[in-house]
Amino acid sequence: LSQRDSITDRSYSYRQVKDLSKRIASALNKRGLKKGDVFAMLLPNLPEFPIVYFGVLQAGGVITTANPLFTTEELAKQLKQADTKWILTVPQLVHRAKEAMQELGRGNVFVVGDADGCESLSVLLEDDGSSVPDITINPKEDIAVLPFSSGTTGHPKGVILTHHNLISCGSIMRSKGFLSFDETTVLLAFLPFFHSYGMVAIMSMGLHCGSTIITMPRFEREKFLHALQNYQVKRS
After folding, report:
1. Do 1 and 222 meet the contact criterion of CB atoms below 8 Å apart?
2. Against a cut of 0.85, is the pTM above it?
């Protein structure tokens, strides 16, 4: 398995992640996503996170990840600075996503599940995958991810990560003695995927190494201990 949710136990194989990411790329292309367009993800850690993440990148889009605890004002500021065209969230956060996008004069809100006035992710995943765009990426120039970080002071600021940046970081982590993930590793992912460490070191490198990733939407002690026992977790 590639991904398993620690709460609902729903899961995806590596083959499914590859296929469904392709469907996401095709579906978004049909809806008008162009190379360089920014797609926001306002999500806790979910098994669908990497499916959408890699689907957007396949379509030539740019991912900006947002903290689910952001207020509407904080979210709107990030979406404006990133010039966001689409956003994906969960039903509990739809009202914030809608209000923030309305400040940009845009209403392209997708949801994992169902919510009034939003297109469900399940519809995108039903795409036939026939319209994945043929794009050319300049690894050192084209932006892949635009996370926001305040560093040590001030308001969050956009951090430009190119495709080359992500691959370089991954290559360092594959150095001998740096990471010990492999296809037998079970990772418990409670560090947020919207932050660079969770996104690169856990999600991306876990998948790259063939590990199984158990996602936790948030850290809760009893659920954490339950997951450690139930899934025979080797790393967290």
Report:
1. no
2. yes
